[in-house]
Automatic annotation (TrEMBL), chains A, B:
Protein name, as recorded: Flavin-nucleotide-binding protein
Any Pfam family hit: Pyridox_ox_2
Transmembrane segments: none
PANTHER family noted in UniProt: 5-NITROIMIDAZOLE ANTIBIOTICS RESISTANCE PROTEIN, NIMA-FAMILY-RELATED PROTEIN-RELATED, FLAVIN-NUCLEOTIDE-BINDING PROTEIN
Length: 204, 204
């Protein structure tokens, strides 16, 4: 099968490692919201920023949320409209987020999130002050309930009668690329070189 | 402000036009799920495939869902960890999806979805049979309740005391690119040329 669910932990880890933005599904005042937010993953925990979600997640009764990480790999163009689709890798994680309040874990979690977005930045940038830490909502979600779906490969109708229609079919690859860093116009000194750790991230 | 909410309809339309995969938030058996799925947008309606969501959306009591479309434009690397962020464009649409059952609207909606993914494919590929139509769940969501958020530009701490730290700050642009079409290995005839409408999509 070209589209398959996976229960392989390595697939989950690879999908999480390949990104840094998830979509968080949460119920706020009775209404579902789907919020993009940055995350970082360790072997057993997904850390993510609370921001808007914190309105309902923090202090309110605990709820099960869904965090989805999706990578688009290709447009699947088949002979028939019906068989069109997307090559993708998707992980959905379910659980009840825990608000991180202790300073050591909060710093650890923020390091995970920061370095997932931009490896090396935690060691380079100015770290959070106590006041900044207090103003940051960080949530932790265990990685023990997850569902993974992956589709790869060509369209599914290559061995169907539609293959005789003389229509082109195949895949248009989709890739996410990182461009040349654009310095802040307010950079001091203005000609400060881009540090070596800020290279174009290599995300498989 | 570099991060702003927008009530400009043109911003919503531009975000929807720039993508073809949304994240659908829906409550299934009491649990939030966030599902990636393809969509297509007209002036007043977002059409999307039901697939997994149809389990709960179709036949069950109607519910308000949230459909989120997010584009990542850049990693914002500030002097301080606290000011790190993402340049992005995000639209969240709220509403109660309507299942499309009449054949003319279903064909119209599928055309919108198909051509949003790959412009021109509706006219090129074999269109759905009646049986395929019956096997397809298509949902329609009105575009009249939406929220848009956009962040652009450099980091926010260029005029803060942190600007004196001598740290590099700026933006790493993120772009989604489309590669050279990969023919299905089962293509007939094997050397069939890629049709001209399947060019690399131009998505601002």
């Amino acid at each position: 099968m070209k589209e398959k669910g996976s229960y392989d932990r390595a697939d989950l880890d690879a999908i999480l490692a390949a990104g840094f933005v998830c979509h968080l599904g949460v119920v706020v005042d009775g209404t579902v919201m789907v919020l993009p937010t940055v995350y970082g993953a360790t072997a057993d925990t997904l850390y993510f920023h609370g921001s808007v979600a914190s309105r309902s997640l923090v202090g309110a009764p605990q709820q099960t949320v869904c965090v989805t990480v999706t990578h688009l790999d290709g447009l699947v163009l088949a002979r028939s409209v019906f068989e069109h689709g997307i090559n993708y890798r998707c992980a959905m994680i379910y659980g009840t987020p825990r608000q991180v309040t202790e300073e050591p874990e909060k710093l650890h979690g923020l390091q995970i999130v920061t370095d997932q977005c931009a490896p090396g930045q935690w060691n380079y940038a100015r770290r959070p002050t106590r006041k900044e830490l207090a103003a940051t909502t960080l949530l932790a979600l265990p990685l023990n309930e997850a569902s993974v779906k992956i589709r790869t490969g060509p369209p599914d109708d290559g061995d169907s009668p539609d293959s005789q229609l003389g229509l082109w079919a195949g895949v248009i690859p989709i890739t996410t690329t990182y461009g040349t860093p654009i310095p802040d116009p307010l950079l001091l000194p203005p000609n400060l070189a881009v540090p070596s750790h800020i290279s174009v991230p290599d995300r498989p």
